[in-house]
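note to self: dont lose this again. the chain is below, predicted strucutre after it. 647 aa total, dont forget to put it in the shared folder this time
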Amino acid sequence: MVTQAFAGPLAGLFGADRATALRRGILRSPADSLPVPTAEDRHAWGAVDPVSAEDLLARAERDLGSPWPLPLASLAARVHRDGDREEWESLAFERQRRLSRATAAAALTLEGRWIDEVADGVVLLCEQSSWCWPAHDDTLARHGAVLATVDDPFLDLGAGEVVGQLAWIDRVLGARLDERYPGLRARIRREARVRVIDPFVTRRDWHWLGLDGDVHNWNPWIHGNVLVAALQLLDDPPEEALRAEVTDLVVEGLDRYVASLPDDGAIDEGYSYWWNGACRALEALDVLAFATDGRWDAAASVEALRETVAFPHRSHLGGDWYLNLADGQARPTREQPWHALHRAARRVGDDDARRHAAAQRRPGEPLATEREGLGRLLRGLTDDAWQGDTAATSPLPRDTWLPSTQVLLAREGAGTAAGAALAIKGGHNGEHHNHNDVGSFVVAVDGVPVLVDAGRPTYTAETFGPRRYDIWTMQSTWHNVPEIRGAAQPAGAGYAASVVACDVTDERSALALELAGAYEAPGLVSWRREAALERGARGARVTIDDTWDLEPWGAGDEPPTTVRLLVAGRIELRDDGARIVPLEGARPVLARWTPAVPATLVERPLTDPLLTEVWGGALTRIDLLVTEHRNLRVTVELDAATEKDRR
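---
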Protein backbone atom coordinates (compact mmCIF):
# COMPACT_ATOMS: atom_id res chain seq x y z
CA MET A 1 0.00 0.00 0.00
CA VAL A 2 1.22 3.55 -0.81
CA THR A 3 1.11 5.76 2.28
CA GLN A 4 0.33 9.44 2.37
CA ALA A 5 3.36 11.55 1.49
CA PHE A 6 3.96 13.53 4.65
CA ALA A 7 7.26 14.48 6.22
CA GLY A 8 7.10 16.01 9.68
CA PRO A 9 9.41 16.02 12.67
CA LEU A 10 9.25 12.24 13.14
CA ALA A 11 10.13 11.56 9.52
CA GLY A 12 13.11 13.84 9.94
CA LEU A 13 14.26 11.92 12.99
CA PHE A 14 13.51 8.39 11.85
CA GLY A 15 14.41 8.74 8.20
CA ALA A 16 12.31 8.84 5.07
CA ASP A 17 12.74 5.08 4.54
CA ARG A 18 11.08 4.18 7.84
CA ALA A 19 8.83 1.57 6.21
CA THR A 20 11.87 -0.14 4.72
CA ALA A 21 13.66 0.06 8.04
CA LEU A 22 10.74 -1.64 9.71
CA ARG A 23 10.88 -4.44 7.20
CA ARG A 24 14.58 -4.89 8.01
CA GLY A 25 13.58 -5.93 11.50
CA ILE A 26 13.79 -2.80 13.61
CA LEU A 27 10.78 -3.88 15.70
CA ARG A 28 10.98 -6.17 18.69
CA SER A 29 9.15 -9.46 18.44
CA PRO A 30 5.42 -9.44 19.27
CA ALA A 31 6.11 -11.43 22.44
CA ASP A 32 8.28 -8.62 23.82
CA SER A 33 7.11 -5.36 22.25
CA LEU A 34 4.99 -3.76 24.99
CA PRO A 35 6.60 -2.16 28.05
CA VAL A 36 4.80 -3.96 30.88
CA PRO A 37 5.76 -7.23 32.57
CA THR A 38 3.65 -10.31 32.02
CA ALA A 39 1.83 -11.85 34.94
CA GLU A 40 4.50 -14.56 34.96
CA ASP A 41 7.00 -11.98 36.24
CA ARG A 42 6.19 -12.42 39.92
CA HIS A 43 8.96 -10.12 41.05
CA ALA A 44 7.45 -7.19 39.14
CA TRP A 45 3.88 -7.82 40.22
CA GLY A 46 4.93 -8.55 43.77
CA ALA A 47 6.55 -5.10 43.92
CA VAL A 48 3.35 -3.20 43.09
CA ASP A 49 2.50 -0.47 45.60
CA PRO A 50 0.41 -2.24 48.28
CA VAL A 51 -2.11 0.60 48.61
CA SER A 52 -2.83 0.44 44.88
CA ALA A 53 -3.00 -3.36 44.90
CA GLU A 54 -5.35 -3.51 47.88
CA ASP A 55 -7.60 -0.83 46.41
CA LEU A 56 -7.92 -2.64 43.08
CA LEU A 57 -8.50 -6.03 44.63
CA ALA A 58 -11.17 -4.67 46.96
CA ARG A 59 -13.08 -3.03 44.12
CA ALA A 60 -12.69 -6.08 41.88
CA GLU A 61 -14.10 -8.26 44.67
CA ARG A 62 -17.22 -6.10 44.74
CA ASP A 63 -17.73 -6.81 41.03
CA LEU A 64 -17.86 -10.58 41.44
CA GLY A 65 -21.33 -12.07 41.31
CA SER A 66 -22.98 -8.93 39.97
CA PRO A 67 -24.26 -8.69 36.38
CA TRP A 68 -21.90 -7.18 33.85
CA PRO A 69 -23.08 -3.78 32.53
CA LEU A 70 -25.09 -4.22 29.34
CA PRO A 71 -25.17 -1.34 26.84
CA LEU A 72 -28.46 -1.93 25.01
CA ALA A 73 -29.58 -1.15 21.47
CA SER A 74 -32.33 1.15 22.73
CA LEU A 75 -29.73 3.20 24.58
CA ALA A 76 -27.45 3.35 21.54
CA ALA A 77 -30.30 4.69 19.43
CA ARG A 78 -30.97 7.53 21.87
CA VAL A 79 -28.18 9.64 20.41
CA HIS A 80 -30.33 9.95 17.27
CA ARG A 81 -33.65 10.29 19.10
CA ASP A 82 -33.11 12.65 22.01
CA GLY A 83 -29.38 13.40 21.84
CA ASP A 84 -28.47 11.41 24.95
CA ARG A 85 -25.14 9.63 24.63
CA GLU A 86 -24.30 9.37 28.31
CA GLU A 87 -26.45 6.39 29.28
CA TRP A 88 -25.00 3.99 26.68
CA GLU A 89 -21.46 5.27 27.17
CA SER A 90 -21.54 5.05 30.96
CA LEU A 91 -22.45 1.35 30.77
CA ALA A 92 -19.83 0.62 28.10
CA PHE A 93 -17.16 2.46 30.08
CA GLU A 94 -18.00 0.66 33.30
CA ARG A 95 -17.88 -2.71 31.53
CA GLN A 96 -14.35 -1.95 30.36
CA ARG A 97 -13.29 -0.63 33.77
CA ARG A 98 -14.53 -3.82 35.38
CA LEU A 99 -12.49 -5.83 32.90
CA SER A 100 -9.43 -3.72 33.67
CA ARG A 101 -9.88 -4.29 37.40
CA ALA A 102 -10.15 -8.03 36.80
CA THR A 103 -7.02 -8.00 34.64
CA ALA A 104 -5.01 -6.26 37.34
CA ALA A 105 -6.39 -8.64 39.97
CA ALA A 106 -5.39 -11.62 37.85
CA ALA A 107 -1.87 -10.26 37.37
CA LEU A 108 -1.53 -9.52 41.08
CA THR A 109 -2.78 -12.91 42.29
CA LEU A 110 -2.82 -15.41 39.38
CA GLU A 111 -6.05 -16.77 40.85
CA GLY A 112 -8.28 -18.70 38.46
CA ARG A 113 -11.40 -16.79 39.42
CA TRP A 114 -9.87 -13.60 38.06
CA ILE A 115 -8.86 -15.32 34.82
CA ASP A 116 -12.50 -16.42 34.53
CA GLU A 117 -13.66 -12.87 35.12
CA VAL A 118 -11.27 -11.62 32.45
CA ALA A 119 -12.47 -14.24 29.98
CA ASP A 120 -16.09 -13.23 30.59
CA GLY A 121 -15.27 -9.59 29.94
CA VAL A 122 -13.22 -10.34 26.84
CA VAL A 123 -15.96 -12.46 25.29
CA LEU A 124 -18.57 -9.79 26.06
CA LEU A 125 -16.47 -7.27 24.15
CA CYS A 126 -15.91 -9.69 21.29
CA GLU A 127 -19.66 -10.29 21.03
CA GLN A 128 -20.59 -6.62 21.29
CA SER A 129 -21.86 -5.59 17.86
CA SER A 130 -19.65 -2.54 17.63
CA TRP A 131 -16.80 -1.04 19.64
CA CYS A 132 -17.55 2.39 18.22
CA TRP A 133 -19.40 4.81 20.49
CA PRO A 134 -22.81 5.46 18.88
CA ALA A 135 -22.32 9.24 18.91
CA HIS A 136 -19.31 8.79 16.59
CA ASP A 137 -20.58 6.14 14.19
CA ASP A 138 -21.23 7.22 10.60
CA THR A 139 -23.64 4.35 9.99
CA LEU A 140 -26.65 6.67 9.73
CA ALA A 141 -25.02 8.72 6.99
CA ARG A 142 -23.58 5.73 5.13
CA HIS A 143 -26.33 3.16 5.62
CA GLY A 144 -29.38 4.93 7.02
CA ALA A 145 -29.11 2.85 10.21
CA VAL A 146 -29.36 4.01 13.81
CA LEU A 147 -27.44 0.97 15.04
CA ALA A 148 -23.94 -0.08 14.04
CA THR A 149 -23.41 -1.80 10.70
CA VAL A 150 -21.26 -4.74 11.73
CA ASP A 151 -19.59 -5.32 8.36
CA ASP A 152 -18.64 -1.63 8.01
CA PRO A 153 -17.04 -0.81 11.38
CA PHE A 154 -16.17 2.74 12.29
CA LEU A 155 -12.77 3.24 13.91
CA ASP A 156 -13.22 5.85 16.62
CA LEU A 157 -11.97 6.48 20.14
CA GLY A 158 -14.15 3.67 21.49
CA ALA A 159 -12.92 1.05 19.04
CA GLY A 160 -9.36 2.15 19.70
CA GLU A 161 -9.79 1.84 23.45
CA VAL A 162 -11.24 -1.68 23.19
CA VAL A 163 -8.58 -3.02 20.86
CA GLY A 164 -5.88 -1.46 23.02
CA GLN A 165 -7.40 -3.03 26.12
CA LEU A 166 -7.50 -6.46 24.51
CA ALA A 167 -3.88 -6.12 23.41
CA TRP A 168 -2.71 -5.22 26.93
CA ILE A 169 -4.72 -8.17 28.33
CA ASP A 170 -3.08 -10.46 25.80
CA ARG A 171 0.36 -9.14 26.79
CA VAL A 172 -0.10 -9.57 30.53
CA LEU A 173 -2.29 -12.69 30.71
CA GLY A 174 -1.64 -14.48 27.42
CA ALA A 175 -0.06 -17.56 28.97
CA ARG A 176 -2.85 -17.89 31.54
CA LEU A 177 -5.55 -17.51 28.92
CA ASP A 178 -3.91 -20.21 26.78
CA GLU A 179 -3.90 -22.51 29.79
CA ARG A 180 -7.46 -21.90 30.98
CA TYR A 181 -9.27 -20.75 27.80
CA PRO A 182 -7.55 -22.21 24.74
CA GLY A 183 -8.73 -20.43 21.60
CA LEU A 184 -9.71 -17.15 23.27
CA ARG A 185 -6.58 -15.36 22.12
CA ALA A 186 -7.36 -16.35 18.54
CA ARG A 187 -10.80 -14.78 18.97
CA ILE A 188 -9.18 -11.56 20.20
CA ARG A 189 -6.97 -11.47 17.12
CA ARG A 190 -9.86 -12.13 14.76
CA GLU A 191 -11.95 -9.29 16.20
CA ALA A 192 -8.98 -6.92 16.22
CA ARG A 193 -8.33 -7.57 12.53
CA VAL A 194 -11.96 -7.21 11.44
CA ARG A 195 -12.92 -4.21 13.56
CA VAL A 196 -9.71 -2.16 13.72
CA ILE A 197 -6.59 -3.29 11.86
CA ASP A 198 -8.12 -3.94 8.44
CA PRO A 199 -10.34 -0.83 8.46
CA PHE A 200 -7.34 1.25 9.57
CA VAL A 201 -5.28 0.08 6.62
CA THR A 202 -7.94 -0.02 3.92
CA ARG A 203 -10.12 2.98 4.70
CA ARG A 204 -7.93 6.07 4.73
CA ASP A 205 -10.58 8.78 4.91
CA TRP A 206 -10.80 8.83 8.70
CA HIS A 207 -11.30 12.45 9.70
CA TRP A 208 -8.93 12.07 12.65
CA LEU A 209 -5.97 11.35 10.37
CA GLY A 210 -5.71 15.08 9.78
CA LEU A 211 -5.33 14.83 6.01
CA ASP A 212 -7.25 18.11 5.70
CA GLY A 213 -4.88 19.84 8.11
CA ASP A 214 -7.28 19.73 11.06
CA VAL A 215 -5.41 17.56 13.55
CA HIS A 216 -6.89 17.07 17.00
CA ASN A 217 -6.70 14.78 20.01
CA TRP A 218 -8.38 11.80 18.31
CA ASN A 219 -5.26 11.39 16.20
CA PRO A 220 -2.76 10.30 18.88
CA TRP A 221 -5.42 8.64 21.01
CA ILE A 222 -6.49 6.24 18.24
CA HIS A 223 -3.06 5.84 16.68
CA GLY A 224 -1.59 4.93 20.06
CA ASN A 225 -4.12 2.15 20.57
CA VAL A 226 -3.71 0.86 17.01
CA LEU A 227 0.06 0.75 17.56
CA VAL A 228 -0.32 -1.32 20.74
CA ALA A 229 -2.71 -3.70 18.97
CA ALA A 230 -0.46 -4.15 15.94
CA LEU A 231 2.68 -4.74 17.99
CA GLN A 232 1.03 -7.35 20.23
CA LEU A 233 -1.67 -9.03 18.18
CA LEU A 234 -0.18 -9.26 14.67
CA ASP A 235 2.08 -12.13 15.73
CA ASP A 236 1.38 -14.72 13.06
CA PRO A 237 4.49 -14.93 10.83
CA PRO A 238 2.47 -14.21 7.65
CA GLU A 239 1.39 -10.94 9.31
CA GLU A 240 4.92 -9.61 9.68
CA ALA A 241 4.63 -7.29 6.70
CA LEU A 242 1.19 -6.10 7.83
CA ARG A 243 2.58 -5.39 11.31
CA ALA A 244 5.30 -3.25 9.77
CA GLU A 245 2.83 -1.49 7.48
CA VAL A 246 0.44 -0.64 10.32
CA THR A 247 3.31 0.64 12.44
CA ASP A 248 4.49 2.80 9.58
CA LEU A 249 1.01 4.24 9.07
CA VAL A 250 0.79 4.96 12.80
CA VAL A 251 4.12 6.78 12.75
CA GLU A 252 2.96 8.84 9.79
CA GLY A 253 -0.29 9.68 11.53
CA LEU A 254 1.48 10.65 14.75
CA ASP A 255 3.85 12.75 12.68
CA ARG A 256 0.91 14.86 11.52
CA TYR A 257 -0.11 15.45 15.12
CA VAL A 258 3.41 16.27 16.29
CA ALA A 259 3.81 18.66 13.36
CA SER A 260 0.65 20.47 14.45
CA LEU A 261 1.93 21.11 17.98
CA PRO A 262 3.26 24.65 18.44
CA ASP A 263 6.82 25.13 19.64
CA ASP A 264 5.56 26.38 23.02
CA GLY A 265 3.70 23.07 23.59
CA ALA A 266 0.33 24.74 24.24
CA ILE A 267 -2.92 22.89 23.58
CA ASP A 268 -5.80 25.06 22.34
CA GLU A 269 -8.25 22.53 23.78
CA GLY A 270 -6.86 23.37 27.21
CA TYR A 271 -5.47 21.43 30.14
CA SER A 272 -8.18 18.77 30.35
CA TYR A 273 -7.62 17.69 26.77
CA TRP A 274 -3.84 17.62 27.13
CA TRP A 275 -4.25 14.19 28.75
CA ASN A 276 -6.04 12.78 25.71
CA GLY A 277 -4.05 14.64 23.07
CA ALA A 278 -0.42 15.51 23.67
CA CYS A 279 -0.12 13.01 26.51
CA ARG A 280 -1.49 10.24 24.28
CA ALA A 281 1.14 11.17 21.67
CA LEU A 282 3.90 11.03 24.27
CA GLU A 283 2.67 7.63 25.47
CA ALA A 284 2.49 6.25 21.92
CA LEU A 285 6.00 7.49 21.18
CA ASP A 286 7.19 5.93 24.44
CA VAL A 287 5.79 2.56 23.33
CA LEU A 288 7.44 3.06 19.92
CA ALA A 289 10.79 3.80 21.56
CA PHE A 290 10.50 0.59 23.59
CA ALA A 291 9.43 -1.49 20.60
CA THR A 292 12.44 -0.26 18.60
CA ASP A 293 14.96 -0.61 21.46
CA GLY A 294 15.33 3.16 21.62
CA ARG A 295 16.21 3.64 17.96
CA TRP A 296 13.04 5.66 17.38
CA ASP A 297 12.87 7.92 20.42
CA ALA A 298 11.41 11.31 19.57
CA ALA A 299 10.21 13.06 22.73
CA ALA A 300 13.48 14.67 23.81
CA SER A 301 14.44 15.66 20.25
CA VAL A 302 11.34 17.62 19.19
CA GLU A 303 10.93 21.05 20.79
CA ALA A 304 7.13 20.97 20.77
CA LEU A 305 7.12 17.60 22.56
CA ARG A 306 9.62 18.79 25.16
CA GLU A 307 7.59 21.93 25.79
CA THR A 308 4.20 20.24 25.95
CA VAL A 309 5.40 18.15 28.89
CA ALA A 310 5.37 21.45 30.82
CA PHE A 311 1.82 22.37 29.81
CA PRO A 312 0.05 20.81 32.84
CA HIS A 313 2.09 22.67 35.45
CA ARG A 314 1.95 25.85 33.38
CA SER A 315 -1.86 25.59 33.55
CA HIS A 316 -1.94 24.96 37.29
CA LEU A 317 -3.68 27.51 39.51
CA GLY A 318 -3.12 25.65 42.78
CA GLY A 319 -4.35 22.55 44.61
CA ASP A 320 -6.77 20.69 42.35
CA TRP A 321 -7.58 23.82 40.29
CA TYR A 322 -6.43 24.48 36.72
CA LEU A 323 -7.00 27.09 34.06
CA ASN A 324 -9.86 25.60 32.08
CA LEU A 325 -10.15 26.71 28.50
CA ALA A 326 -12.51 25.20 25.94
CA ASP A 327 -14.32 22.07 27.18
CA GLY A 328 -12.25 21.58 30.30
CA GLN A 329 -13.19 21.52 33.97
CA ALA A 330 -11.56 23.97 36.35
CA ARG A 331 -11.28 21.19 38.91
CA PRO A 332 -10.87 17.95 36.97
CA THR A 333 -10.97 14.54 38.57
CA ARG A 334 -7.85 13.59 40.48
CA GLU A 335 -7.81 10.27 38.63
CA GLN A 336 -5.42 11.47 35.95
CA PRO A 337 -2.55 9.25 34.77
CA TRP A 338 0.08 11.31 36.57
CA HIS A 339 2.57 8.51 36.03
CA ALA A 340 2.37 9.17 32.27
CA LEU A 341 3.36 12.80 32.82
CA HIS A 342 6.07 11.67 35.23
CA ARG A 343 7.44 9.22 32.66
CA ALA A 344 7.42 11.81 29.87
CA ALA A 345 9.12 14.36 32.14
CA ARG A 346 11.86 11.86 32.91
CA ARG A 347 12.31 11.11 29.23
CA VAL A 348 12.72 14.77 28.22
CA GLY A 349 14.55 15.85 31.38
CA ASP A 350 11.94 18.34 32.66
CA ASP A 351 12.35 18.31 36.43
CA ASP A 352 9.55 20.86 37.02
CA ALA A 353 7.09 18.61 35.20
CA ARG A 354 8.35 15.59 37.11
CA ARG A 355 7.89 17.43 40.42
CA HIS A 356 4.38 18.50 39.45
CA ALA A 357 3.39 14.92 38.64
CA ALA A 358 4.93 13.52 41.80
CA ALA A 359 3.28 16.24 43.92
CA GLN A 360 -0.13 14.84 43.00
CA ARG A 361 0.57 11.71 45.05
CA ARG A 362 -1.30 11.73 48.34
CA PRO A 363 -1.00 9.24 51.19
CA GLY A 364 -3.55 6.47 50.94
CA GLU A 365 -4.43 7.14 47.29
CA PRO A 366 -3.65 4.54 44.60
CA LEU A 367 -0.90 5.45 42.15
CA ALA A 368 -2.98 4.46 39.11
CA THR A 369 -6.61 3.63 38.41
CA GLU A 370 -8.56 1.93 35.64
CA ARG A 371 -10.54 5.09 34.86
CA GLU A 372 -8.14 6.13 32.10
CA GLY A 373 -7.77 2.73 30.45
CA LEU A 374 -6.02 -0.56 31.04
CA GLY A 375 -2.73 0.38 29.40
CA ARG A 376 -2.37 3.38 31.66
CA LEU A 377 -3.33 1.33 34.71
CA LEU A 378 -0.75 -1.37 33.99
CA ARG A 379 2.02 1.11 33.27
CA GLY A 380 1.30 3.07 36.43
CA LEU A 381 1.26 -0.03 38.61
CA THR A 382 4.58 -1.34 37.28
CA ASP A 383 6.61 1.89 36.93
CA ASP A 384 9.27 1.64 39.66
CA ALA A 385 10.46 5.23 39.24
CA TRP A 386 6.91 6.53 39.64
CA GLN A 387 6.29 4.45 42.74
CA GLY A 388 9.51 5.66 44.36
CA ASP A 389 9.17 9.42 43.76
CA THR A 390 7.71 11.07 46.87
CA ALA A 391 7.59 14.40 48.72
CA ALA A 392 7.71 16.63 45.64
CA THR A 393 6.09 20.07 45.31
CA SER A 394 4.48 21.69 42.27
CA PRO A 395 6.64 24.39 40.68
CA LEU A 396 3.85 26.99 40.19
CA PRO A 397 5.81 29.27 37.83
CA ARG A 398 5.24 32.98 38.38
CA ASP A 399 4.54 33.77 34.71
CA THR A 400 3.56 31.65 31.74
CA TRP A 401 3.14 33.19 28.29
CA LEU A 402 2.03 30.88 25.47
CA PRO A 403 2.10 32.87 22.23
CA SER A 404 0.56 30.13 20.07
CA THR A 405 -2.74 30.33 21.98
CA GLN A 406 -2.20 33.88 23.27
CA VAL A 407 -2.65 32.82 26.88
CA LEU A 408 -0.98 34.56 29.83
CA LEU A 409 -1.09 33.15 33.36
CA ALA A 410 0.54 35.24 36.10
CA ARG A 411 0.61 34.99 39.89
CA GLU A 412 2.13 37.00 42.72
CA GLY A 413 5.22 34.87 43.10
CA ALA A 414 6.71 31.57 42.00
CA GLY A 415 6.24 28.43 44.03
CA THR A 416 3.04 29.42 45.86
CA ALA A 417 -0.64 29.73 45.03
CA ALA A 418 -1.18 32.28 47.81
CA GLY A 419 -2.60 35.63 46.74
CA ALA A 420 -4.02 36.69 43.42
CA ALA A 421 -3.53 35.12 39.98
CA LEU A 422 -4.69 36.23 36.55
CA ALA A 423 -5.14 34.33 33.32
CA ILE A 424 -6.32 35.90 30.05
CA LYS A 425 -6.59 34.57 26.52
CA GLY A 426 -6.75 36.00 23.04
CA GLY A 427 -6.90 33.42 20.28
CA HIS A 428 -9.90 32.88 18.02
CA ASN A 429 -13.32 31.26 18.03
CA GLY A 430 -12.47 28.31 15.81
CA GLU A 431 -10.24 26.48 18.27
CA HIS A 432 -10.71 22.79 19.02
CA HIS A 433 -13.56 22.31 21.50
CA ASN A 434 -14.05 26.03 21.08
CA HIS A 435 -15.98 28.35 23.34
CA ASN A 436 -16.66 31.88 22.12
CA ASP A 437 -14.29 33.51 24.58
CA VAL A 438 -11.78 35.80 22.85
CA GLY A 439 -10.48 38.18 25.51
CA SER A 440 -11.93 36.27 28.45
CA PHE A 441 -10.05 36.09 31.73
CA VAL A 442 -9.97 34.15 34.99
CA VAL A 443 -9.01 35.55 38.38
CA ALA A 444 -8.04 33.17 41.19
CA VAL A 445 -7.22 33.80 44.83
CA ASP A 446 -5.17 31.30 46.82
CA GLY A 447 -5.37 29.02 43.79
CA VAL A 448 -9.20 29.00 43.69
CA PRO A 449 -10.99 30.62 40.71
CA VAL A 450 -13.32 33.46 41.69
CA LEU A 451 -13.96 35.15 38.31
CA VAL A 452 -14.32 31.99 36.32
CA ASP A 453 -14.85 30.07 33.11
CA ALA A 454 -17.79 27.70 33.69
CA GLY A 455 -16.38 24.85 31.59
CA ARG A 456 -18.71 22.38 29.95
CA PRO A 457 -21.74 20.26 30.81
CA THR A 458 -22.20 16.58 29.97
CA TYR A 459 -21.75 15.83 26.29
CA THR A 460 -24.83 15.17 24.16
CA ALA A 461 -25.46 14.95 20.43
CA GLU A 462 -25.81 18.75 20.46
CA THR A 463 -22.31 19.30 21.79
CA PHE A 464 -20.55 18.72 18.48
CA GLY A 465 -23.45 19.46 16.18
CA PRO A 466 -24.80 22.59 14.49
CA ARG A 467 -26.49 23.68 17.74
CA ARG A 468 -23.31 23.64 19.83
CA TYR A 469 -23.54 27.35 20.54
CA ASP A 470 -27.08 27.05 21.82
CA ILE A 471 -25.41 25.57 24.91
CA TRP A 472 -24.98 28.41 27.38
CA THR A 473 -21.48 27.48 28.54
CA MET A 474 -20.18 27.83 24.97
CA GLN A 475 -21.53 31.36 24.50
CA SER A 476 -19.56 34.54 25.06
CA THR A 477 -22.58 35.79 27.02
CA TRP A 478 -21.41 33.51 29.86
CA HIS A 479 -17.72 34.38 29.67
CA ASN A 480 -15.87 37.39 31.04
CA VAL A 481 -16.08 39.47 27.88
CA PRO A 482 -18.22 42.39 26.69
CA GLU A 483 -21.50 42.15 24.82
CA ILE A 484 -21.43 45.11 22.46
CA ARG A 485 -24.68 46.78 21.43
CA GLY A 486 -26.44 43.49 22.11
CA ALA A 487 -23.97 41.47 20.00
CA ALA A 488 -22.20 38.44 21.45
CA GLN A 489 -19.18 36.82 19.83
CA PRO A 490 -19.90 34.50 16.88
CA ALA A 491 -18.12 31.18 16.33
CA GLY A 492 -15.42 30.76 13.70
CA ALA A 493 -11.68 31.18 13.30
CA GLY A 494 -12.21 34.57 11.67
CA TYR A 495 -13.40 36.00 14.98
CA ALA A 496 -10.10 36.64 16.67
CA ALA A 497 -7.98 38.90 18.80
CA SER A 498 -5.45 41.16 17.12
CA VAL A 499 -2.65 43.55 18.04
CA VAL A 500 -1.74 41.24 20.92
CA ALA A 501 1.07 42.40 23.20
CA CYS A 502 2.41 40.63 26.29
CA ASP A 503 4.58 42.52 28.76
CA VAL A 504 6.07 40.74 31.79
CA THR A 505 8.24 42.40 34.43
CA ASP A 506 8.85 41.83 38.13
CA GLU A 507 6.32 44.54 38.96
CA ARG A 508 3.62 43.78 36.42
CA SER A 509 2.49 41.05 34.02
CA ALA A 510 0.03 42.20 31.36
CA LEU A 511 -1.64 41.24 28.11
CA ALA A 512 -3.18 43.85 25.81
CA LEU A 513 -5.31 42.92 22.83
CA GLU A 514 -7.82 44.29 20.35
CA LEU A 515 -11.21 42.53 20.53
CA ALA A 516 -13.12 44.24 17.71
CA GLY A 517 -12.35 41.39 15.32
CA ALA A 518 -14.20 38.96 17.57
CA TYR A 519 -17.56 40.72 17.06
CA GLU A 520 -20.10 41.73 14.45
CA ALA A 521 -21.38 44.63 16.53
CA PRO A 522 -22.96 47.62 14.78
CA GLY A 523 -20.68 50.63 14.71
CA LEU A 524 -17.81 48.94 16.53
CA VAL A 525 -14.49 50.54 15.61
CA SER A 526 -12.27 49.27 18.43
CA TRP A 527 -12.44 47.51 21.77
CA ARG A 528 -9.08 47.48 23.48
CA ARG A 529 -8.61 45.35 26.59
CA GLU A 530 -5.58 45.19 28.84
CA ALA A 531 -5.49 42.76 31.77
CA ALA A 532 -2.67 43.02 34.28
CA LEU A 533 -1.46 41.52 37.54
CA GLU A 534 0.27 44.29 39.50
CA ARG A 535 2.65 43.21 42.25
CA GLY A 536 3.13 45.50 45.24
CA ALA A 537 4.43 45.52 48.78
CA ARG A 538 0.92 44.89 50.12
CA GLY A 539 0.12 42.12 47.68
CA ALA A 540 -1.08 41.90 44.12
CA ARG A 541 -4.13 43.26 42.41
CA VAL A 542 -5.69 42.50 39.05
CA THR A 543 -6.78 45.28 36.72
CA ILE A 544 -8.94 44.93 33.61
CA ASP A 545 -8.93 48.11 31.51
CA ASP A 546 -11.36 48.34 28.61
CA THR A 547 -11.40 51.29 26.21
CA TRP A 548 -13.66 51.29 23.17
CA ASP A 549 -14.72 53.32 20.19
CA LEU A 550 -18.24 53.06 18.76
CA GLU A 551 -19.71 55.09 15.96
CA PRO A 552 -22.63 57.33 17.07
CA TRP A 553 -25.93 55.50 17.29
CA GLY A 554 -28.68 56.61 14.91
CA ALA A 555 -32.38 56.86 15.59
CA GLY A 556 -34.12 54.79 18.26
CA ASP A 557 -32.84 53.23 21.45
CA GLU A 558 -29.26 52.05 21.39
CA PRO A 559 -28.93 48.33 22.27
CA PRO A 560 -27.15 47.84 25.59
CA THR A 561 -23.40 47.35 25.88
CA THR A 562 -22.51 45.18 28.88
CA VAL A 563 -19.32 43.89 30.43
CA ARG A 564 -19.79 40.49 32.07
CA LEU A 565 -18.12 38.99 35.13
CA LEU A 566 -18.92 35.35 35.95
CA VAL A 567 -18.45 34.64 39.65
CA ALA A 568 -18.11 31.50 41.77
CA GLY A 569 -18.86 32.31 45.40
CA ARG A 570 -21.05 34.58 47.53
CA ILE A 571 -21.53 38.13 46.26
CA GLU A 572 -22.40 41.28 48.17
CA LEU A 573 -23.05 44.16 45.77
CA ARG A 574 -21.83 47.59 46.88
CA ASP A 575 -22.10 51.08 45.40
CA ASP A 576 -18.78 50.86 43.57
CA GLY A 577 -18.26 47.13 43.33
CA ALA A 578 -18.78 43.83 45.04
CA ARG A 579 -17.32 41.77 47.83
CA ILE A 580 -16.92 38.12 46.86
CA VAL A 581 -16.29 35.17 49.17
CA PRO A 582 -14.81 32.44 46.96
CA LEU A 583 -15.23 28.68 47.24
CA GLU A 584 -13.19 26.37 49.44
CA GLY A 585 -12.19 28.91 52.06
CA ALA A 586 -10.10 31.12 49.79
CA ARG A 587 -9.79 34.66 51.08
CA PRO A 588 -12.47 37.19 50.07
CA VAL A 589 -11.82 39.73 47.34
CA LEU A 590 -13.11 43.18 46.49
CA ALA A 591 -14.04 43.78 42.87
CA ARG A 592 -14.46 47.47 42.01
CA TRP A 593 -15.35 49.24 38.79
CA THR A 594 -14.76 52.77 37.61
CA PRO A 595 -16.80 54.64 36.58
CA ALA A 596 -19.61 53.56 38.92
CA VAL A 597 -22.00 51.91 36.43
CA PRO A 598 -25.25 50.02 37.06
CA ALA A 599 -24.61 46.41 38.12
CA THR A 600 -27.09 43.53 37.98
CA LEU A 601 -26.73 40.01 39.32
CA VAL A 602 -27.94 37.11 37.16
CA GLU A 603 -27.89 33.73 38.89
CA ARG A 604 -27.39 30.60 36.82
CA PRO A 605 -28.62 27.48 38.69
CA LEU A 606 -26.54 24.40 37.90
CA THR A 607 -27.88 20.86 37.64
CA ASP A 608 -25.42 19.08 35.35
CA PRO A 609 -23.02 16.97 37.45
CA LEU A 610 -19.96 18.06 35.47
CA LEU A 611 -20.72 21.62 36.58
CA THR A 612 -22.09 21.05 40.08
CA GLU A 613 -19.12 18.92 41.14
CA VAL A 614 -16.90 21.92 40.39
CA TRP A 615 -19.00 24.96 41.28
CA GLY A 616 -21.85 23.71 43.45
CA GLY A 617 -25.45 24.71 42.83
CA ALA A 618 -25.04 28.00 40.97
CA LEU A 619 -22.80 30.54 39.29
CA THR A 620 -23.60 34.26 39.31
CA ARG A 621 -22.97 36.77 36.55
CA ILE A 622 -22.39 40.44 37.25
CA ASP A 623 -23.64 42.55 34.34
CA LEU A 624 -22.06 46.00 34.17
CA LEU A 625 -24.10 48.32 31.94
CA VAL A 626 -21.67 50.61 30.10
CA THR A 627 -23.77 51.83 27.15
CA GLU A 628 -23.17 55.49 27.99
CA HIS A 629 -19.44 55.10 28.51
CA ARG A 630 -16.30 54.49 26.48
CA ASN A 631 -14.03 53.03 29.14
CA LEU A 632 -14.19 50.84 32.21
CA ARG A 633 -11.66 49.71 34.79
CA VAL A 634 -12.30 46.65 36.95
CA THR A 635 -9.93 45.90 39.82
CA VAL A 636 -9.80 42.78 41.96
CA GLU A 637 -7.78 42.57 45.17
CA LEU A 638 -7.82 40.76 48.49
CA ASP A 639 -10.08 41.89 51.31
CA ALA A 640 -9.63 41.06 54.97
CA ALA A 641 -11.58 37.97 56.01
CA THR A 642 -14.22 38.41 58.72
CA GLU A 643 -15.34 36.06 61.41
CA LYS A 644 -18.59 35.64 59.50
CA ASP A 645 -16.66 34.37 56.47
CA ARG A 646 -14.60 31.99 58.59
CA ARG A 647 -17.76 30.52 60.06
